[in-house]
Amino acid sequence: MSETKQPFRSGFAAMIGRTNVGKSTFLNTVLGQKIAITSNKPQTTRSRQHAVYTDERGQIVFLDTPGIHKAKTKLGEYMITVADRALRDVDVIVWMVEPKGPIGEGERHILKQLETIDVPVILLINKIDTVPKEDLLARIAMYAKEYEFAEIVPVSALKGEGTDEVVSLIFDRLPEGPMYYDEDTVTDTKMRDLAAEFIREKALKCLKDEVPHGIAVAIEQMTWNEEGNRYDIDAAIICERDSHKRIIIGKGGEMIKKIGSAARFEIERMAGEHVNLKLWVKVRKGWRDNDTWLRDFGYDRKNL
Question: Is this prediction's pTM over 0.90?
Answer without folding.
Answer: no
